[in-house]
Amino acid sequence: MPLLISLLRLLPPELAHSIALNSLNLFYALGLSKFLFPMPVNADSFIYKNLTFNNRLGIAAGLDKNGDYIDSLGSLGFGFIEVGTITPLAQPGNPKPRIFRFFKQKAIINKLGFNNKGLDYLVQKLKSRKFSGILGVNIGANKDSEGQKRIDDYVECFNKVSPYADYITVNISSPNTPNLRALHSRENFEPLFAALKVTRATSHFMNPVFIKLSPDESQETIIDIINAIKEYEFDGIIASNTTTDHTALAGRQDSKVAGGLSGRPLFSKSNELLQSIHQHDPNLIKIGVGGVFTFRDFNQKLESGASLVQIYTSFIYEGPGIVSKLLN
């Protein structure tokens, strides 16, 4: 497996990503996953709203945008999986190249732009999944949707995935969709939150709803959103999405490319956001994500106030073995 990962690093990022995940699907279909990737022995479960997370480690949205790899990812021992971000209509995303790897810094910059196969495609995948663990769905809006149409996009996604999702994440923090982060301002998030509260009630969705936050917003803005989350009776936050601050890659010419930075350089910044939110409201459920590569990193997220932890970049760099590494 280390040899395969080394070979994949020689390929363009999106091609490597596709080959790796399709290989994982093949191993799963052949019944080889349990031999190649033994399940972790850690059984530190977490229960919230009648949902039992077998362990506290999950895969973040972005790795499996369309639900194509739910079962094979589930076979690796994750306590939960989050798919998406999904939008009502399929869209190609931004022009390529749009993923840039920084091996020395254990980082990635992506400017994908919510590329996905569309809501109806994902719903079919959700219906046919065999994975019995906790499955979250991350929802967004199409690139060309503005004003009320943007709100309608979120509502449509919520309505269609709610029968099949164990929780729903509202993504207002991707830096790669024009003006999406403007949803961090009260004048923009309040109409969205109000619409989703009504939608949640009419769809009788009793499971958790999370808001995924940017690490680049002011303390005042974050506190405003936290207060609104409680006001609109949502459940918690995911801290955090990628950052547009690329100073950790100073000196690299390609660090100037636009996009969101994930991986090791995001660790401290996402932890600061997590800690700040926890200090403001210790009872709010928090999912910590950003730069988790070691068992110590994993525990530091929990110590910073997270109840659950997600990974993305470390899975890309280290492969399925990262699951046992973090949990054992």
Sequence-ordered SSE layout with sheet pairings:
Blueprint (H helix, E strand, L loop, with lengths): L1 H7 L4 H17 L3 H4 L9 E3 L2 E3 L3 E3 L10 H5 L5 E7 L12 E4 L4 E4 L8 H10 L5 E6 L7 H15 L5 E5 L14 H17 L6 E5 L5 H13 L4 E4 L20 E4 L3 H14 L4 E5 L5 H9 L4 E4 L1 H6 L2 H7 L1
Parallel strand pairs: 3-4, 3-13, 4-7, 7-8, 8-9, 9-10, 10-12, 12-13
Antiparallel strand pairs: 1-2, 5-6, 6-11
Helix pairs in contact: 6-7, 7-8, 8-9
Describe what you observe in this structure.
With 328 residues, this protein is of the alpha/beta class. It has one domain (2-327): Aldolase class I (TIM Barrel), CATH 3.20.20.70. The protein contains twelve helices and 13 strands. It has helices at residues 2-8, 13-29, 33-36, 70-74, 119-128, 147-161, 186-202, 219-231, 267-280, 295-303, 313-318, 321-327; strands at 46-48, 51-53, 57-59, 80-86, 99-102, 107-110, 134-139, 167-171, 209-213, 236-239, 260-263, 285-289, 308-311. The chain has an eight-stranded parallel beta barrel with strand order 3-4-7-8-9-10-12-13, surrounded by five helices. Strands 5-6-11 form a three-stranded antiparallel β-sheet, with no helix packed on it. A two-stranded antiparallel ribbon has the order 1-2. Helix 7 links the parallel strand 8 and strand 9 (209-213). Helix 7 runs parallel beside helix 8 (219-231). The mean pLDDT is 93. It comes from SAR86 cluster bacterium BACL1 MAG-120820-bin45. Belongs to the dihydroorotate dehydrogenase family. Type 2 subfamily.
